[in-house]
Amino acid sequence: MASSTRVDLDGNPIKPLTICMIGAGGFIGSHLCEKLMSETPHKVLAVDVYNDKIKHLLEPSTLPFSDRISFHRLNIKHDSRLEGLIKMADLTINLAAICTPADYNTRPLDTIYSNFIDALPVVKYCSENGKRLIHFSTCEVYGKTIGCFLPKDSPLRQDPSYFVLKEDESPCIFGPIDKQRWSYACAKQLIERLVYAEGAENGLEFTIVRPFNWIGPRMDFIPGIDGPSEGVPRVLACFSNNLLRREPLKLVDGGESQRTFIYIKDAIEAVLLMIENPARANGHIFNVGNPNNEVTVRQLAEMMTKVYSKVSGESELETPTVDVSSQEFYGTGYDDSDKRIPDMTIINKQLGWNPKTSLWDLLESTLTYQHRTYAEAIKQAISKPVAS
Ligand code: NAD
Ligand code: UDP
Protein backbone atom coordinates (compact mmCIF):
# COMPACT_ATOMS: atom_id res chain seq x y z
CA MET A 1 0.00 0.00 0.00
CA ALA A 2 1.07 3.61 -0.54
CA SER A 3 2.75 4.94 2.56
CA SER A 4 4.25 8.30 3.49
CA THR A 5 7.15 6.66 5.37
CA ARG A 6 8.90 5.23 2.32
CA VAL A 7 12.64 5.84 2.32
CA ASP A 8 15.23 5.65 -0.44
CA LEU A 9 18.38 3.50 -0.46
CA ASP A 10 20.18 6.14 1.61
CA GLY A 11 17.48 6.29 4.26
CA ASN A 12 16.01 9.62 3.13
CA PRO A 13 12.21 9.99 2.97
CA ILE A 14 10.83 9.78 -0.58
CA LYS A 15 8.63 12.71 -1.60
CA PRO A 16 5.52 11.87 -3.64
CA LEU A 17 6.29 12.55 -7.32
CA THR A 18 4.24 13.39 -10.37
CA ILE A 19 5.43 11.24 -13.27
CA CYS A 20 4.67 11.89 -16.93
CA MET A 21 4.81 8.37 -18.42
CA ILE A 22 4.86 8.34 -22.21
CA GLY A 23 3.95 4.94 -23.67
CA ALA A 24 2.16 4.07 -20.40
CA GLY A 25 -0.39 1.98 -22.29
CA GLY A 26 2.19 -0.54 -23.52
CA PHE A 27 3.56 -3.73 -21.99
CA ILE A 28 6.21 -2.19 -19.70
CA GLY A 29 4.12 0.93 -19.02
CA SER A 30 1.14 -1.10 -17.81
CA HIS A 31 3.28 -2.98 -15.27
CA LEU A 32 5.01 0.19 -14.13
CA CYS A 33 1.67 1.96 -13.64
CA GLU A 34 0.38 -1.03 -11.64
CA LYS A 35 3.45 -0.98 -9.40
CA LEU A 36 3.29 2.78 -8.83
CA MET A 37 -0.41 2.62 -7.98
CA SER A 38 -0.21 -0.36 -5.63
CA GLU A 39 3.03 0.36 -3.78
CA THR A 40 3.80 4.08 -3.90
CA PRO A 41 2.09 7.43 -3.36
CA HIS A 42 3.26 8.80 -6.74
CA LYS A 43 0.95 10.31 -9.36
CA VAL A 44 1.02 9.21 -13.01
CA LEU A 45 0.06 11.26 -16.05
CA ALA A 46 -0.29 8.30 -18.43
CA VAL A 47 0.31 9.29 -22.07
CA ASP A 48 -0.38 6.92 -24.98
CA VAL A 49 -2.55 6.46 -28.04
CA TYR A 50 -4.03 3.27 -26.48
CA ASN A 51 -5.14 2.43 -22.96
CA ASP A 52 -6.50 -1.13 -23.17
CA LYS A 53 -3.65 -2.54 -21.04
CA ILE A 54 -4.22 -0.03 -18.23
CA LYS A 55 -8.05 0.10 -18.35
CA HIS A 56 -8.15 -1.88 -15.08
CA LEU A 57 -6.26 0.99 -13.40
CA LEU A 58 -8.42 3.75 -14.87
CA GLU A 59 -11.90 2.33 -14.21
CA PRO A 60 -14.03 2.36 -12.15
CA SER A 61 -13.37 5.79 -10.70
CA THR A 62 -13.88 4.36 -7.19
CA LEU A 63 -10.51 2.57 -7.24
CA PRO A 64 -8.41 3.60 -4.21
CA PHE A 65 -5.78 5.25 -6.43
CA SER A 66 -8.11 6.87 -8.98
CA ASP A 67 -7.01 10.38 -8.02
CA ARG A 68 -3.36 9.45 -8.73
CA ILE A 69 -3.61 8.27 -12.33
CA SER A 70 -5.01 10.10 -15.35
CA PHE A 71 -4.94 9.03 -18.98
CA HIS A 72 -3.99 11.49 -21.75
CA ARG A 73 -4.69 10.08 -25.20
CA LEU A 74 -2.17 11.78 -27.43
CA ASN A 75 0.31 11.01 -30.15
CA ILE A 76 3.64 12.59 -29.23
CA LYS A 77 4.43 13.06 -32.93
CA HIS A 78 2.12 16.03 -33.11
CA ASP A 79 0.44 17.24 -29.97
CA SER A 80 1.08 20.57 -28.31
CA ARG A 81 -0.20 19.23 -24.96
CA LEU A 82 3.02 17.22 -24.50
CA GLU A 83 5.15 20.09 -23.17
CA GLY A 84 2.46 21.08 -20.66
CA LEU A 85 2.33 17.54 -19.27
CA ILE A 86 6.12 17.37 -18.97
CA LYS A 87 6.09 20.75 -17.18
CA MET A 88 3.45 19.51 -14.71
CA ALA A 89 5.60 16.49 -13.79
CA ASP A 90 8.75 16.10 -11.67
CA LEU A 91 9.95 13.22 -13.84
CA THR A 92 9.27 12.04 -17.39
CA ILE A 93 9.63 8.39 -18.37
CA ASN A 94 9.68 7.81 -22.13
CA LEU A 95 8.68 4.31 -23.21
CA ALA A 96 7.05 5.21 -26.54
CA ALA A 97 8.58 3.40 -29.49
CA ILE A 98 8.11 0.96 -32.31
CA CYS A 99 10.09 -1.95 -30.87
CA THR A 100 8.96 -5.15 -32.60
CA PRO A 101 11.55 -6.82 -34.88
CA ALA A 102 8.90 -7.62 -37.52
CA ASP A 103 8.51 -3.85 -38.00
CA TYR A 104 12.20 -2.99 -38.37
CA ASN A 105 12.54 -4.16 -41.97
CA THR A 106 8.90 -3.71 -43.06
CA ARG A 107 8.35 -0.22 -41.54
CA PRO A 108 11.92 1.11 -41.40
CA LEU A 109 10.93 4.78 -41.68
CA ASP A 110 8.33 4.56 -38.89
CA THR A 111 10.93 2.70 -36.82
CA ILE A 112 13.56 5.42 -37.24
CA TYR A 113 11.08 8.25 -36.71
CA SER A 114 9.52 6.66 -33.67
CA ASN A 115 12.80 5.84 -31.93
CA PHE A 116 14.71 9.01 -32.77
CA ILE A 117 12.75 11.93 -34.28
CA ASP A 118 9.64 11.54 -32.10
CA ALA A 119 11.74 11.28 -28.95
CA LEU A 120 13.55 14.57 -29.68
CA PRO A 121 10.88 16.93 -28.31
CA VAL A 122 10.64 14.86 -25.13
CA VAL A 123 14.37 15.27 -24.49
CA LYS A 124 14.23 18.96 -25.42
CA TYR A 125 11.25 19.77 -23.16
CA CYS A 126 12.88 17.95 -20.23
CA SER A 127 16.16 19.77 -20.76
CA GLU A 128 14.61 23.24 -21.26
CA ASN A 129 12.31 22.89 -18.27
CA GLY A 130 14.88 21.37 -15.91
CA LYS A 131 12.95 18.10 -15.60
CA ARG A 132 14.43 14.69 -14.96
CA LEU A 133 14.16 12.08 -17.74
CA ILE A 134 14.27 8.27 -17.64
CA HIS A 135 14.61 7.21 -21.27
CA PHE A 136 14.01 3.64 -22.45
CA SER A 137 16.62 2.46 -24.89
CA THR A 138 17.42 -1.20 -25.66
CA CYS A 139 20.07 -3.91 -25.27
CA GLU A 140 20.02 -3.93 -29.07
CA VAL A 141 22.33 -0.89 -29.06
CA TYR A 142 25.17 -3.35 -28.41
CA GLY A 143 24.31 -5.11 -31.67
CA LYS A 144 26.39 -8.21 -32.34
CA THR A 145 28.95 -9.62 -29.91
CA ILE A 146 32.67 -9.45 -30.70
CA GLY A 147 32.74 -13.22 -30.25
CA CYS A 148 30.43 -13.87 -33.19
CA PHE A 149 33.18 -12.75 -35.59
CA LEU A 150 35.58 -15.41 -34.28
CA PRO A 151 35.88 -18.77 -36.07
CA LYS A 152 33.13 -21.17 -34.95
CA ASP A 153 35.65 -23.46 -33.21
CA SER A 154 37.65 -20.69 -31.49
CA PRO A 155 38.01 -21.35 -27.72
CA LEU A 156 37.79 -17.56 -27.22
CA ARG A 157 34.06 -17.86 -27.92
CA GLN A 158 33.77 -19.23 -24.36
CA ASP A 159 35.59 -16.20 -22.91
CA PRO A 160 33.06 -13.77 -21.35
CA SER A 161 35.12 -10.77 -22.44
CA TYR A 162 34.03 -11.63 -26.00
CA PHE A 163 30.30 -11.58 -25.30
CA VAL A 164 29.24 -10.05 -21.95
CA LEU A 165 27.74 -6.62 -22.67
CA LYS A 166 29.03 -3.76 -20.49
CA GLU A 167 27.47 -0.29 -20.50
CA ASP A 168 30.78 1.59 -20.27
CA GLU A 169 33.06 -0.69 -22.29
CA SER A 170 31.36 -2.73 -25.00
CA PRO A 171 31.32 -1.41 -28.56
CA CYS A 172 28.10 -1.11 -30.55
CA ILE A 173 28.44 -3.41 -33.58
CA PHE A 174 25.73 -3.18 -36.23
CA GLY A 175 25.28 -4.94 -39.58
CA PRO A 176 25.10 -3.28 -43.01
CA ILE A 177 22.45 -0.71 -43.95
CA ASP A 178 20.34 -3.16 -45.96
CA LYS A 179 19.91 -5.24 -42.83
CA GLN A 180 17.28 -2.86 -41.51
CA ARG A 181 17.03 -4.45 -38.07
CA TRP A 182 19.94 -2.21 -37.19
CA SER A 183 17.98 0.95 -38.03
CA TYR A 184 16.16 0.43 -34.73
CA ALA A 185 19.44 -0.08 -32.88
CA CYS A 186 21.01 2.89 -34.60
CA ALA A 187 18.07 5.23 -33.86
CA LYS A 188 18.12 4.14 -30.21
CA GLN A 189 21.88 4.64 -30.06
CA LEU A 190 21.65 8.16 -31.46
CA ILE A 191 18.91 9.18 -29.02
CA GLU A 192 21.05 7.80 -26.18
CA ARG A 193 23.95 9.92 -27.41
CA LEU A 194 21.68 12.96 -27.61
CA VAL A 195 20.34 12.44 -24.07
CA TYR A 196 23.91 12.01 -22.85
CA ALA A 197 25.01 15.18 -24.65
CA GLU A 198 22.10 17.16 -23.14
CA GLY A 199 23.38 15.99 -19.77
CA ALA A 200 26.95 16.99 -20.55
CA GLU A 201 26.24 20.39 -22.16
CA ASN A 202 22.97 21.53 -20.58
CA GLY A 203 22.83 19.64 -17.28
CA LEU A 204 19.85 17.39 -18.13
CA GLU A 205 19.29 14.92 -15.29
CA PHE A 206 18.84 11.61 -17.07
CA THR A 207 18.87 7.85 -16.69
CA ILE A 208 18.97 5.48 -19.67
CA VAL A 209 17.52 1.98 -19.38
CA ARG A 210 18.63 -0.86 -21.65
CA PRO A 211 16.09 -3.68 -21.29
CA PHE A 212 17.23 -7.24 -22.10
CA ASN A 213 14.16 -9.19 -23.24
CA TRP A 214 11.65 -8.35 -20.49
CA ILE A 215 8.73 -10.74 -20.74
CA GLY A 216 5.46 -11.45 -18.93
CA PRO A 217 1.69 -11.01 -19.10
CA ARG A 218 0.28 -8.36 -21.48
CA MET A 219 3.30 -8.45 -23.78
CA ASP A 220 2.30 -7.51 -27.34
CA PHE A 221 -0.82 -9.29 -28.66
CA ILE A 222 -2.18 -12.63 -29.79
CA PRO A 223 -2.70 -12.42 -33.57
CA GLY A 224 -6.37 -12.62 -34.56
CA ILE A 225 -7.56 -12.16 -30.96
CA ASP A 226 -6.36 -8.78 -29.68
CA GLY A 227 -4.16 -7.84 -32.62
CA PRO A 228 -4.06 -8.24 -36.40
CA SER A 229 -4.26 -11.84 -37.73
CA GLU A 230 -1.20 -11.30 -39.90
CA GLY A 231 0.74 -9.37 -37.22
CA VAL A 232 4.05 -10.75 -35.93
CA PRO A 233 4.66 -9.89 -32.26
CA ARG A 234 7.83 -10.64 -30.26
CA VAL A 235 8.81 -14.23 -29.55
CA LEU A 236 6.87 -14.73 -26.29
CA ALA A 237 3.57 -13.83 -27.98
CA CYS A 238 4.44 -15.73 -31.20
CA PHE A 239 5.15 -18.92 -29.27
CA SER A 240 2.14 -18.39 -26.95
CA ASN A 241 -0.08 -18.04 -30.02
CA ASN A 242 1.31 -21.27 -31.51
CA LEU A 243 0.77 -23.13 -28.22
CA LEU A 244 -2.77 -21.81 -27.78
CA ARG A 245 -3.63 -22.89 -31.34
CA ARG A 246 -1.81 -26.24 -31.04
CA GLU A 247 0.51 -25.36 -33.91
CA PRO A 248 4.26 -26.10 -34.01
CA LEU A 249 6.43 -23.22 -32.78
CA LYS A 250 8.36 -21.60 -35.64
CA LEU A 251 12.14 -21.47 -35.17
CA VAL A 252 13.66 -18.71 -37.27
CA ASP A 253 16.93 -19.80 -38.95
CA GLY A 254 17.21 -22.84 -36.67
CA GLY A 255 16.49 -21.02 -33.38
CA GLU A 256 20.20 -20.77 -32.61
CA SER A 257 20.22 -17.17 -31.38
CA GLN A 258 20.63 -16.80 -27.66
CA ARG A 259 18.72 -14.52 -25.32
CA THR A 260 18.50 -13.88 -21.60
CA PHE A 261 14.89 -13.42 -20.50
CA ILE A 262 13.84 -11.51 -17.38
CA TYR A 263 10.47 -11.50 -15.67
CA ILE A 264 8.76 -8.14 -16.09
CA LYS A 265 8.06 -7.91 -12.35
CA ASP A 266 11.78 -8.22 -11.50
CA ALA A 267 12.64 -5.56 -14.07
CA ILE A 268 9.97 -3.17 -12.75
CA GLU A 269 11.62 -3.36 -9.31
CA ALA A 270 14.78 -1.99 -10.94
CA VAL A 271 12.87 0.87 -12.59
CA LEU A 272 11.22 1.79 -9.29
CA LEU A 273 14.65 2.00 -7.65
CA MET A 274 15.76 4.38 -10.42
CA ILE A 275 12.64 6.51 -9.96
CA GLU A 276 13.10 6.79 -6.20
CA ASN A 277 16.91 7.13 -6.07
CA PRO A 278 17.77 9.96 -8.46
CA ALA A 279 21.11 10.65 -6.77
CA ARG A 280 22.20 7.10 -7.56
CA ALA A 281 20.54 6.79 -10.96
CA ASN A 282 21.15 10.15 -12.64
CA GLY A 283 23.83 10.21 -15.33
CA HIS A 284 23.85 6.41 -15.62
CA ILE A 285 23.01 3.91 -18.33
CA PHE A 286 21.71 0.65 -16.84
CA ASN A 287 21.51 -2.84 -18.31
CA VAL A 288 18.37 -4.45 -16.91
CA GLY A 289 18.28 -8.19 -17.56
CA ASN A 290 18.80 -11.61 -16.02
CA PRO A 291 22.18 -13.11 -17.01
CA ASN A 292 21.20 -16.41 -15.36
CA ASN A 293 18.28 -17.04 -17.72
CA GLU A 294 20.14 -17.65 -20.97
CA VAL A 295 18.69 -20.03 -23.57
CA THR A 296 18.74 -20.48 -27.32
CA VAL A 297 15.42 -19.71 -29.00
CA ARG A 298 15.10 -23.47 -29.61
CA GLN A 299 15.52 -24.16 -25.88
CA LEU A 300 12.95 -21.46 -25.12
CA ALA A 301 10.49 -23.19 -27.47
CA GLU A 302 11.10 -26.54 -25.79
CA MET A 303 10.66 -25.11 -22.31
CA MET A 304 7.52 -23.17 -23.25
CA THR A 305 6.05 -26.35 -24.75
CA LYS A 306 6.61 -28.24 -21.48
CA VAL A 307 5.38 -25.42 -19.26
CA TYR A 308 2.28 -24.85 -21.39
CA SER A 309 1.41 -28.53 -21.25
CA LYS A 310 1.71 -28.38 -17.46
CA VAL A 311 -0.45 -25.28 -16.98
CA SER A 312 -3.09 -26.13 -19.61
CA GLY A 313 -3.30 -29.88 -19.00
CA GLU A 314 -2.98 -30.43 -22.78
CA SER A 315 -0.58 -32.97 -24.26
CA GLU A 316 2.53 -31.80 -26.11
CA LEU A 317 2.39 -31.94 -29.92
CA GLU A 318 4.24 -34.81 -31.58
CA THR A 319 6.18 -32.26 -33.66
CA PRO A 320 6.47 -29.27 -31.31
CA THR A 321 8.69 -27.07 -33.52
CA VAL A 322 9.24 -26.35 -37.20
CA ASP A 323 12.13 -24.52 -38.89
CA VAL A 324 11.47 -21.42 -41.01
CA SER A 325 13.90 -19.09 -42.74
CA SER A 326 14.10 -15.47 -41.61
CA GLN A 327 13.36 -14.47 -45.21
CA GLU A 328 10.07 -16.37 -45.07
CA PHE A 329 9.18 -15.25 -41.53
CA TYR A 330 10.28 -11.59 -41.52
CA GLY A 331 11.06 -10.79 -45.18
CA THR A 332 14.14 -9.28 -46.79
CA GLY A 333 16.52 -7.30 -44.63
CA TYR A 334 16.13 -9.20 -41.35
CA ASP A 335 19.21 -9.86 -39.28
CA ASP A 336 19.59 -11.13 -35.73
CA SER A 337 21.47 -10.45 -32.50
CA ASP A 338 23.51 -13.55 -31.72
CA LYS A 339 23.77 -13.41 -27.93
CA ARG A 340 22.83 -10.99 -25.17
CA ILE A 341 24.26 -11.34 -21.68
CA PRO A 342 24.04 -8.19 -19.58
CA ASP A 343 26.83 -7.22 -17.24
CA MET A 344 25.21 -6.33 -13.91
CA THR A 345 28.09 -4.52 -12.21
CA ILE A 346 26.80 -0.95 -12.58
CA ILE A 347 23.17 -1.53 -11.57
CA ASN A 348 24.34 -3.68 -8.71
CA LYS A 349 26.73 -1.04 -7.41
CA GLN A 350 24.37 1.92 -7.85
CA LEU A 351 21.04 0.36 -6.87
CA GLY A 352 21.89 -2.97 -5.23
CA TRP A 353 19.42 -4.65 -7.58
CA ASN A 354 19.43 -8.27 -8.74
CA PRO A 355 16.84 -10.25 -10.74
CA LYS A 356 15.19 -13.13 -8.88
CA THR A 357 12.89 -15.22 -11.06
CA SER A 358 14.07 -18.30 -12.97
CA LEU A 359 13.03 -18.82 -16.58
CA TRP A 360 10.85 -21.81 -15.69
CA ASP A 361 9.02 -19.88 -12.97
CA LEU A 362 8.45 -16.78 -15.09
CA LEU A 363 7.16 -18.92 -17.96
CA GLU A 364 4.85 -20.75 -15.60
CA SER A 365 3.17 -17.58 -14.36
CA THR A 366 3.13 -15.98 -17.81
CA LEU A 367 1.72 -19.00 -19.64
CA THR A 368 -0.88 -19.49 -16.90
CA TYR A 369 -1.97 -15.92 -17.68
CA GLN A 370 -1.93 -16.56 -21.46
CA HIS A 371 -4.02 -19.72 -21.06
CA ARG A 372 -6.52 -18.05 -18.71
CA THR A 373 -6.82 -14.96 -20.90
CA TYR A 374 -6.88 -16.41 -24.41
CA ALA A 375 -7.65 -20.16 -24.54
CA GLU A 376 -11.43 -19.70 -24.71
CA ALA A 377 -11.25 -16.90 -27.29
CA ILE A 378 -8.95 -19.01 -29.47
CA LYS A 379 -11.30 -22.00 -29.23
CA GLN A 380 -14.19 -19.83 -30.37
CA ALA A 381 -12.16 -18.25 -33.18
CA ILE A 382 -11.07 -21.67 -34.45
CA SER A 383 -14.58 -23.13 -34.31
CA LYS A 384 -16.15 -20.24 -36.29
CA PRO A 385 -17.07 -21.36 -39.83
CA VAL A 386 -14.90 -19.69 -42.48
CA ALA A 387 -17.00 -17.30 -44.61
CA SER A 388 -17.29 -18.58 -48.18
P1 NAD B 1 5.09 -1.53 -26.24
O1 NAD B 1 4.98 -1.48 -27.72
O2 NAD B 1 4.25 -2.50 -25.52
O3 NAD B 1 4.84 -0.09 -25.62
C1 NAD B 1 5.13 1.11 -26.29
C2 NAD B 1 3.94 2.03 -26.11
O4 NAD B 1 4.27 3.30 -26.69
C3 NAD B 1 2.68 1.53 -26.84
O5 NAD B 1 1.58 1.46 -25.95
C4 NAD B 1 2.46 2.56 -27.92
O6 NAD B 1 1.08 2.80 -28.21
C5 NAD B 1 3.12 3.80 -27.33
N1 NAD B 1 3.52 4.75 -28.37
C6 NAD B 1 4.31 4.50 -29.45
N2 NAD B 1 4.41 5.61 -30.20
C7 NAD B 1 3.67 6.58 -29.59
C8 NAD B 1 3.39 7.92 -29.90
N3 NAD B 1 3.87 8.49 -31.00
N4 NAD B 1 2.62 8.63 -29.06
C9 NAD B 1 2.11 8.04 -27.94
N5 NAD B 1 2.33 6.77 -27.60
C10 NAD B 1 3.11 6.04 -28.42
O7 NAD B 1 6.64 -1.80 -25.91
P2 NAD B 1 7.34 -2.16 -24.51
O8 NAD B 1 7.82 -3.56 -24.60
O9 NAD B 1 6.50 -1.75 -23.38
O10 NAD B 1 8.65 -1.26 -24.61
C11 NAD B 1 8.75 0.03 -24.04
C12 NAD B 1 10.13 0.62 -24.32
O11 NAD B 1 11.15 -0.28 -23.88
C13 NAD B 1 10.43 0.88 -25.81
O12 NAD B 1 11.13 2.08 -25.91
C14 NAD B 1 11.30 -0.28 -26.22
O13 NAD B 1 12.17 0.07 -27.28
C15 NAD B 1 12.06 -0.56 -24.94
N6 NAD B 1 12.49 -1.97 -24.90
C16 NAD B 1 11.67 -2.96 -24.45
C17 NAD B 1 12.13 -4.26 -24.42
C18 NAD B 1 11.32 -5.39 -23.86
O14 NAD B 1 11.92 -6.42 -23.54
N7 NAD B 1 10.01 -5.29 -23.69
C19 NAD B 1 13.41 -4.59 -24.90
C20 NAD B 1 14.20 -3.54 -25.39
C21 NAD B 1 13.73 -2.24 -25.37
N1 UDP C 1 11.82 -15.87 -33.16
C1 UDP C 1 11.54 -17.18 -33.59
N2 UDP C 1 10.23 -17.51 -33.83
C2 UDP C 1 9.20 -16.64 -33.65
C3 UDP C 1 9.51 -15.31 -33.21
C4 UDP C 1 10.83 -14.97 -32.97
O1 UDP C 1 12.44 -18.01 -33.77
O2 UDP C 1 8.03 -17.03 -33.86
C5 UDP C 1 13.24 -15.51 -32.83
C6 UDP C 1 13.79 -14.25 -33.50
O3 UDP C 1 14.30 -14.55 -34.79
C7 UDP C 1 14.89 -13.87 -32.51
C8 UDP C 1 14.32 -14.28 -31.15
O4 UDP C 1 13.28 -15.22 -31.45
O5 UDP C 1 16.04 -14.66 -32.76
C9 UDP C 1 13.76 -13.15 -30.30
O6 UDP C 1 12.87 -12.40 -31.06
P1 UDP C 1 11.98 -11.19 -30.49
O7 UDP C 1 11.04 -10.80 -31.58
O8 UDP C 1 11.38 -11.53 -29.20
O9 UDP C 1 12.97 -9.96 -30.27
P2 UDP C 1 14.55 -9.71 -30.22
O10 UDP C 1 15.06 -10.36 -29.00
O11 UDP C 1 15.14 -10.30 -31.47
O12 UDP C 1 14.65 -8.23 -30.20
Key phrases:
binds uridine-5'-diphosphate; alpha/beta; 388 residues; 14 helices; Rossmann fold; cytoplasm; binds nicotinamide-adenine-dinucleotide
Structural summary, described in words:
InterPro entries: Arna-like_SDR_e, Epimerase_deHydtase, Lipid_A_modif_metabolic_enz, NAD(P)-bd_dom_sf. The mean pLDDT is 96. Strand 2, helix 2 and strand 3 (69-73) form a beta-alpha-beta unit. Helix 1 packs across helix 9, helix 3 crosses helix 6 and helix 11 (297-312) crosses helix 14 (359-383). This protein has helices at 27-39, 55-58, 81-88, 101-104, 108-115, 120-128, 181-202, 235-244, 264-276, 278-281, 297-312, 326-330, 345-351, 359-383; strands at residues 18-22, 43-48, 69-73, 91-94, 132-136, 164-165, 206-211, 214-215, 249-252, 258-260, 262-263, 284-288, 294-296, 321-324, 341-342. The protein is globular, with a radius of gyration of 21 Å. The strands form five sheets. It has a seven-stranded parallel beta sheet, with helices on both faces. By secondary structure, the chain is of the alpha/beta class. The longest helix has 25 residues, at 359-383. The chain has a single domain, classed as 3-Layer(aba) Sandwich (Rossmann fold). The structure holds nicotinamide-adenine-dinucleotide and uridine-5'-diphosphate (UDP).
